[in-house]
Specification:
Elements lengths: L34 H14 L10 H5 L5 E5 L5 H9 L4 E5 L3 H14 L4 E4 L3 H8 L5 E7 L17 H10 E11 L2 H12 L4 E3 L18 H8 L5 E7 L1
Parallel strand pairs: 1-2, 1-4, 2-3, 4-5
Antiparallel strand pairs: 5-7, 6-7
Helix pairs in contact: 1-4
């Protein structure tokens, strides 16, 4: 998805990081930090950034309260993330993104808009899940508009594949949910097939297509609005864990 710190965890083994060498939640991309984003790291980093470490995170201490925990993987520039956090003030949002300008942009919004229910880990979400989060620790997971990797030879790079979903589901509580969204129909169909094949997940959609209506809490992004005006579709998938 985005630019990353790709340093491996010292002394990591395939057993402790089962998918780190197979699936990553991002792709390296260049990006420049604007002055506002750079200042946001300095002004707000201590309050909203959580350093990656290969040990369990004390979630209640990190947020200063006990509340349902939602993991967001790859928030881009953080616009939708900030709006969702405002809408769902009773939930805690742990957000993983490796792209420094995006992290800076969300830090700026958190600081200026007094959004206190977001914490950011600037690291690959697979390693964050495996090392910082316990099993059955998440009330929900959001993955919005992951890179669709349009070319057939690149489909193996898509994030939503069975090994990743199987690992992800282990961290979701029974009754918790997984919400995906994409604007690329072939990827939407692949996502649906992968989630339908996971025995621990149940589709919440009632439409025969298997796709869910957009939940009210997910705002339309400017790119999504632009696409809808051009007649492009957007597909939401919302599955619950049995």
């Amino acid at each position: 998805m985005t630019t990353a710190d790709t340093s491996a965890t010292p002394h990591a083994t395939p057993e402790t990081t089962p998918f780190m060498r197979v699936i990553k939640t991002y792709v390296l991309r260049a990006g420049r930090m604007g002055p506002g984003q750079t200042r946001a790291f300095e002004q707000y980093g201590a309050q909203f950034l959580i350093p990656y470490q290969a040990q369990r995170l004390d979630v209640q201490a990190a947020f200063g309260r006990h509340a349902p925990l939602i993991l967001e993987i790859g928030f881009g520039m953080g616009d939708a993330t900030a709006k969702i956090a405002h809408t769902r003030a009773g939930d805690n949002f742990l957000c993983c993104e490796v792209h420094a300008p995006g992290v800076g942009a969300l830090l700026k919004r958190c600081g200026e808009e007094l959004i206190d229910n977001i914490r950011i880990v600037q690291h690959d979400a697979v390693e964050v899940m495996d090392h910082m989060l316990g099993e059955h620790s998440l009330d929900g997971v959001h993955i919005f508009f992951p890179d669709p990797w349009h070319k057939s030879r690149h489909h193996k790079r898509r994030l939503i594949q069975s090994p990743f979903v199987q690992r992800l589901v282990q961290h979701i509580k029974p009754g918790g949910y997984l919400h995906l969204a994409t604007d690329w129909q072939p990827y939407a169909e692949q996502m649906l097939a992968v989630l339908n094949a996971e025995a621990q997940l149940q589709n919440t959609a009632t439409d025969p297509s298997g796709f869910a209506p957009k939940p009210d809490y997910r705002p339309l992004t400017k790119f999504e609005n632009r696409g809808l005006k051009l007649g492009h579709g957007v597909w939401d998938l919302v599955f619950s864990k049995r």
